[in-house]
Design goal:
about 170 residues, alpha+beta, Jelly Rolls, four-stranded antiparallel β-sheet, 3 helices, about 35% helix, about 30% strand
Length: about 170
């Protein structure tokens, strides 16, 4: 079993004191998932956040392709990133925001993986009971999502520049 102190390493739990970490820990469930299992599917409704304790996951998005020979339309999953346990990642965390919890990417285990799982309703109940936990976790999530948005904007600028240069040829 994972010790409560281990969760200090996760950015989502930054600045939580021991008592707050214990309260978060009390609403977690734990699950081991085999290699190649999709735990989150892009476009599905979600109600839980997964904290990777051991293993590795791949984040992907469906990519629509039109075959030049046949004109057929097909879809493949495009891998965006692999997250390993040493990064202390959390996936599906956007489920904690808003009522429409539609998944924005797919997540598949690439190794046998262990997760701590937090259900949205359990977290929101805890956050209402202890506003300090709710505030700290939401502030941390806002920072994490803000950093990802900055990186996505940089990636879009790079792709737009490359596409513009390719069209000029």
């Amino acid at each position: 079993m994972v010790k409560i102190q281990h969760f200090r390493n996760y950015p989502i739990f930054k600045n939580l004191n021991d008592t707050e970490l214990e309260e978060i820990y009390s609403i977690m469930s734990f699950k081991t998932i085999e290699t190649g299992i999709q735990i989150i599917k892009d476009g599905d409704k979600g109600d839980r956040t997964f904290i990777l304790l051991k293993g590795e996951v791949e984040i992907s998005k469906p990519l629509t392709l039109i075959h030049s020979d046949s004109g057929e339309v097909g879809q493949v999953d495009k891998a965006l990133i692999r997250l390993k346990e040493e990064y202390f990642p959390c996936v599906g965390e956007m489920v904690l925001f808003g009522d429409e919890s539609i998944r924005s990417a797919s997540v598949t285990t690439t190794k046998k993986s262990e997760f701590a799982i937090i259900k949205k309703d359990d977290f929101l109940t805890l956050a209402e009971k202890n506003n300090s936990i709710g505030y700290k976790v939401m502030k941390n999530l806002a920072g994490i999502i803000g950093d990802r948005l900055k990186k996505a904007n940089q990636d879009i600028l790079k792709l737009t520049t490359a596409f513009s240069l390719a069209l000029e040829r």
